[in-house]
Amino acid sequence: MLVLERRPHLGGNARSERESTTGIEVHRHGSHVFHTSNEQVWQYVNRFTEFTSYRHTVWATAGGAVYSLSVNLGTICAHAGRRLAPRRRGR
Ligand SMILES: Cc1cc2nc3c(=O)[nH]c(=O)nc-3n(C[C@H](O)[C@H](O)[C@H](O)COP(=O)(O)OP(=O)(O)OC[C@H]3O[C@@H](n4cnc5c(N)ncnc54)[C@H](O)[C@@H]3O)c2cc1C
């Protein structure tokens, strides 16, 4: 296979590199998060590189309270100060 690349490195904008003095992984073109729920895809991409484990958590503040995002039933319960449950279809 022939790969042509005009930059001095492969990987395009998703490339990262180790900073030589600290060993810290630096994303020169902005950080990139890879996610898949497909085990076959995960096995495939792991043939080419190692991934750094990362957990993405987003929080929002509103009215002096802190809520987790994205919005789910727990977020609505916290905001409403009530214990709500999903309504089952057909009932
Ligand atoms: C700041 C930022 C954050 C991002 N975060 C995420 C993320 O978290 N998760 C995610 O999935 N995606 C993210 N993306 C999107 C992701 O970067 C792109 O979808 C992905 O890089 C596209 O890959 P690509 O190989 O198609 O193109 P590119 O990464 O752009 O690579 C194309 C390569 O082709 C080379 N090239 C172009 N023209 C020629 C030519 N004529 N001859 C030789 N070589 C050439 C370029 O130099 C480049 O290296 C982010 C993008 C940015 C900018």
TrEMBL record:
<protein>
    <submittedName>
        <fullName>UDP-galactopyranose mutase</fullName>
        <ecNumber>5.4.99.9</ecNumber>
    </submittedName>
</protein>
<keyword id="KW-0413">Isomerase</keyword>
<dbReference type="GO" id="GO:0008767">
    <property type="term" value="F:UDP-galactopyranose mutase activity"/>
</dbReference>
<feature type="region of interest" description="Disordered">
    <location>
        <begin position="1"/>
        <end position="22"/>
    </location>
</feature>
<dbReference type="GO" id="GO:0005829">
    <property type="term" value="C:cytosol"/>
</dbReference>
<dbReference type="Pfam" id="PF13450">
    <property type="entry name" value="NAD_binding_8"/>
</dbReference>
<dbReference type="GO" id="GO:0050660">
    <property type="term" value="F:flavin adenine dinucleotide binding"/>
</dbReference>
